[in-house]
Design goal:
Helix content is 69%, strand content 0%. The protein is an all-alpha fold.
Length: 58
């Protein structure tokens, strides 16, 4: 199966850039989420952590 895919991909010009782009995209999303979580106020984290236990039906 891998030989079939590898053979088809070899015929595409510039195909070697796609793994680099996907790795950069993954890294940017991961770092973005890490920065977002680190900047979140502790009060907001505490509020969100209590949501599953909240019995208020608003």
């Amino acid at each position: 199966m891998l030989k079939f895919i590898k053979h088809n991909m070899a015929g595409i010009d510039g195909v070697e850039i796609y793994p680099i782009i996907s790795m950069l995209l993954f890294f940017m999303v991961f770092v973005g989420m890490l920065v977002f979580v680190m900047k979140l106020p502790k009060r907001k984290i505490e509020e969100v952590s209590q949501l599953p236990l909240d019995n208020d039906n608003n």
